[in-house]
Design goal:
- This protein is 77% helix and 0% strand.
- It has a single domain, classed as MetI-like fold (Orthogonal Bundle), CATH 1.10.3720.
- Helix 4 crosses helix 10 and helix 8 runs antiparallel to helix 9.
- The protein is mainly alpha-helical and 277 residues long.
- The protein starts with 17 loop residues before the first helix and ends with a helix.
- The longest helix is centred in the N-terminal third of the chain and has 32 residues.
- The chain is flat and about 75 Å long.
Length: 277
């Protein structure tokens, strides 16, 4: 019995591994981005850019009012608006999860209304609509009260949904265990559910603080005095005064001094929560 020997065919070189393909793709992307950046940098007129957006003399002229007026007012508006939104949003979240239908309807209506309404429109209604509807009414703390109320009403709608998600993330067994020990539903919610819910949603709460900090730039629509200007309004006024956009750039960089560290804090908190799970 004869056996046939099969001749080996030509060897086909193996293809690139997935890791090598990924490295090659990244190298191509980095090279393309580098080429684009070099082209843009070489084509730009840096002298005109510096004269238009980075005049050091104008930047120095903004100090110290940039911080003592613009940044200080921005922080006041943000903190007061956030505090109001925090309290109101927590109450709305509890109402949204209530077994009483009227509470759920009120909370749902408020949340949908203020989440769908632009913050700019809320400020306009507070500044010009309220005096027409209620003649003689004076907002407490004048501009500061109006801004805090406007920011608080808008942020409460978003914070309510954040709190609701945090409350629903707490295991129901903990509430049942608390009830079996004789706690009322309100006591269990206040002492067990809410502390855990707030801890769970700290990263999105911080994100909302960042958004509110930037939304404070909408204050200009209600008309502010030189003493109540926030960063964006102060930069805009200085830019108009000097006919140069450098003050706006400086104001934008000042926003970044606050938002970038807060964003870093959010990432750290999210990472820690991920590790805890």
């Amino acid at each position: 019995m004869t056996s046939t020997v099969t001749e080996p065919g030509p060897r086909i070189p193996p293809g690139l591994s997935p890791r090598r393909r990924a490295k090659r793709a990244r190298a191509i992307q980095y090279t393309a981005l580098t080429v684009i950046a070099v082209v843009i940098v070489s084509m730009a007129n840096w002298k005109l850019i510096a004269d238009a957006f980075f005049r050091v003399d104008l930047a120095w002229e903004m100090i110290p009012e940039l911080f003592t007026v613009g940044l200080a007012n921005t922080l006041i508006y943000t903190v007061t608006g956030y505090a109001l939104g925090f309290v109101l949003g927590l109450g709305l979240a509890i109402m949204r999860l209530s077994t009483v239908r009227v509470n759920r309807v009120i909370a749902s209506t408020y949340i949908e209304l203020f989440r769908g309404m632009p913050a700019l429109l809320v400020f306009l209604l507070l500044a010009f609509g309220v005096p027409v509807a209620f003649p003689g009414f004076v907002m407490p703390f004048d501009t500061y009260g109006t801004v805090a109320l406007g920011l608080g009403l808008v942020s409460a709608a978003y914070l309510a949904e954040t709190f609701r998600a945090g409350i629903q993330a707490v295991p129901k067994g903990q509430v049942e265990a608390a009830r079996s020990l004789g706690m009322s539903h309100a006591q269990a919610t206040r002492t067990i559910v809410l502390p855990q819910a707030v801890r769970i949603v700290i990263p999105p709460l911080t994100n909302e603080l960042i958004l509110l900090f930037k939304d404070s730039s909408l204050v200009y629509v209600i008309g502010v005095s030189s003493a109540t200007r926030e960063l964006a309004k102060y930069g805009s006024d200085m830019s108009t005064l000097h006919g140069n956009p450098t003050p706006l750039v400086v104001a934008g960089l000042t926003y970044l001094l606050i938002t970038i560290p807060l964003s870093f804090v959010v990432r750290r908190l999210e990472r820690k929560q991920g590790e805890a799970r």
